[in-house]
């Protein structure tokens, strides 16, 4: 049976067919759909972990206990998980352990463009790279075999195009491999220095040479001879881009097992072709290896190191051809910068904080609320990584004091990000006595990655009821005084305004928790479907106060302020800022069941 699957769906299917029993992840584009699909196979225990480090540690424990385990994350998530990665590389596995890194050339939804192939060489773990959906499924199964055969975790690297492109995939039955016996082995699984020194030597002298030999013989790396005047070494989606450009006018060495790279196979291929190109996105990972072998090749001298590759880029760089003619439309499409959605609950808090933006520093974080930095709200000075909305704010606060800057620090973090890596920053701020304001925006979901559950939603990955971690109680438990906590509905501007004022004036650590579900949650959309705001044109004075909230449903065109009823969900923030009561809430809300 064949089925049309994305790469992420195919990875999930491959884990199922391989007999995987445990799967963990933290959502992040472009990897999110992997666990969402794995969770549909009830033979596999699946969980959204609080962060990538925890996810990998869950996978490590499951592997040592004897089960095949899959762990998934986006490329920057592997930074969070690097601590256990480097140690489990020494320890090795019992049941197969496959770690998916979903890299994102082009940074469509990421803060950097790091190339995680370098992690494999750094951690000294095997690495596999599929190029299409069929390979995603097949290579996952092979990755589990490699892991168990060579006693190593396997880094499974995919990229955005491979994750989200669709292809026909041949499905097969699940192979039940069971759970291996766990035998207590202190030398293998306890990495005190005495044991780690021995394991490092074993990796260098035993595991890596065996993996190198495997790399030269596995079918995951294959040569395709055609015209030998040009030879191309490529991996992942770059292989298909190259094939589209050169077709059978070149020969190919397709790399699917990329650490260790196949030195003998590369040399054999290079000797057979007249001119050698290395086509890979981002870092010259393969190119540097090949040049270190003394083999002449052309790569990043002509191909860009930044962004995604495409057939057009390769054609122009290697063949000198200009872009081919394409179909165009004789219209000018307006720019659509990212912005908070109409009815977004974050808008209320950012609007009220924006009144202080000349008096504060706002350290923001990774999530929808990053968009608070956009005009007209303009709340945001920094965005670094998950959790840094709090911890970077602590550093900023300390320097402000030393420099005698009279600026309060407001640190912003979402509910899922708070559970991911914000709690430790909060504790640090309390322990070290910062007087910054920490704003936790609780919209009852993991919003930007597509509404995954988190420890505060009361549901697990399957949508089943789970314990709901109460953020207010947690904040109190780690030491924030009750009088320095405000829980507000961000749709209520008066309440939110008072909380921001109290926070700004406080001389102690202060926490504001905004609680209102994301406007795009299906239950919220159904409940608010009948609500909308409407401008009474007779009352409207064109003062444009309503435009200052930055709602995409509100427009000023032909000297008329209007609200797009199709976008509006009746959050009522605009009518609260209108000084002439010219905006009215219309319609009737339905039942609302999201807490």
Walk me through the structure.
With about 600 residues, this protein is α/β, with parallel strands linked by helices. The protein contains 21 helices and 22 strands. The protein has a 7-stranded mixed beta sheet with strand order 3-2-4-5-7-6-12, sandwiched between helices. A 5-stranded parallel beta sheet has the order 14-15-16-18-17, sandwiched between helices. Strands 9-11-10-13 form a 4-stranded mixed beta sheet, with helices on both faces. It is globular and about 80 Å long. The mean pLDDT is about 95.
Tell me briefly what this model is:
By secondary structure, this protein is an alpha/beta fold. It contains 21 helices and 22 strands.
């Amino acid at each position: 049976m064949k089925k049309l699957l994305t790469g992420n769906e195919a990875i999930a299917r491959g884990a199922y067919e391989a007999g995987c029993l445990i799967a963990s992840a933290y959502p992040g584009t472009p990897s999110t759909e992997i666990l969402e699909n794995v969770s549909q196979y009830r033979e596999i225990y699946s969980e959204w972990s609080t962060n990538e480090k925890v996810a990998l540690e869950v996978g490590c424990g499951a592997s040592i206990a004897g089960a095949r385990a899959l762990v998934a994350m986006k490329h920057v998530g592997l930074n969070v998980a690097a601590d256990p990665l480097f140690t489990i590389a020494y320890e090795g596995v019992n049941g197969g352990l496959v770690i998916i890194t979903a890299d994102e050339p082009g940074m469509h939804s990421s803060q950097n463009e790091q190339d995680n192939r370098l992690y494999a060489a750094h951690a000294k773990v095997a690495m596999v790279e599929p190029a299409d959906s069929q390979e995603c499924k097949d290579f996952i199964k092979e990755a589990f075999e490699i892991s168990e055969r060579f006693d190593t975790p396997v880094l499974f690297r995919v990229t955005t195009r491979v994750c989200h492109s669709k292809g026909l995939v041949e499905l097969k039955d699940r192979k039940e491999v069971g759970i291996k016996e766990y035998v207590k082995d202190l030398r293998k699984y306890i990495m005190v220095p005495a044991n780690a020194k021995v394991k490092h030597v074993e990796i260098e002298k035993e595991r890596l040479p065996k993996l190198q030999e495997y790399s030269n013989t596995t079918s995951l790396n294959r040569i395709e001879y055609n015209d030998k005047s040009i030879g191309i070494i490529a991996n992942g989606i770059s292989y298909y881009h190259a094939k589209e450009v050169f077709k059978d006018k070149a020969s190919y060495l397709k790399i699917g097992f990329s650490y260790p790279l196949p030195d003998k196979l590369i040399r054999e291929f290079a000797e057979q072709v007249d001119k050698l190109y290395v086509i890979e996105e981002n870092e010259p990972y393969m190119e540097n290896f090949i040049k270190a072998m003394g083999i002449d090749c052309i790569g990043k001298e002509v191909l860009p190191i930044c962004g995604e590759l495409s057939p057009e880029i390769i054609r122009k760089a290697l063949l000198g051809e200009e872009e081919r003619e394409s179909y165009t439309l004789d219209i000018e499409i307006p720019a659509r910068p990212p912005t908070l959605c109409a009815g977004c609950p974050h808008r209320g808090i950012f609007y009220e904080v924006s009144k202080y933006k000349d008096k504060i520093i706002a350290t923001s974080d990774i999530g929808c609320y990053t968009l608070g930095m956009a005009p007209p709200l303009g709340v945001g000075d920094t965005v670094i990584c998950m959790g840094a909305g709090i911890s970077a704010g602590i550093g900023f606060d300390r320097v402000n004091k030393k420099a005698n800057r009279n600026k309060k620090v407001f640190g912003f973090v979402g509910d899922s990000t708070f559970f991911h890596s914000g709690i430790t920053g909060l504790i640090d701020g309390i322990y070290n006595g910062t007087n910054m304001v920490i704003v936790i925006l609780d919209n009852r979901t993991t919003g930007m990655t597509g509404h995954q559950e988190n420890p505060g939603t009361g549901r697990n990955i399957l949508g089943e009821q789970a314990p709901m971690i109460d953020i207010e109680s947690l904040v109190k438990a780690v030491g924030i005084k009750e009088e320095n906590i405000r829980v507000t509905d961000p749709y209520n501007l008066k309440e939110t305004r008072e909380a921001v004022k109290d926070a700004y004036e406080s001389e102690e650590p202060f926490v504001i928790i905004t609680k209102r579900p994301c406007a795009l949650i299906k239950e919220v959309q159904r409940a608010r479907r009948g609500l909308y705001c409407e401008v009474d044109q007779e009352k409207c004075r064109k003062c444009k106060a309503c435009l200052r909230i930055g709602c995409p449903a509100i427009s000023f065109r032909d000297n008329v302020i209007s609200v797009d009823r199709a976008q509006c969900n009746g959050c009522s923030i605009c009518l609260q800022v209108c000084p002439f009561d010219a905006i009215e809430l219309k319609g009737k809300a339905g039942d609302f069941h999201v807490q």
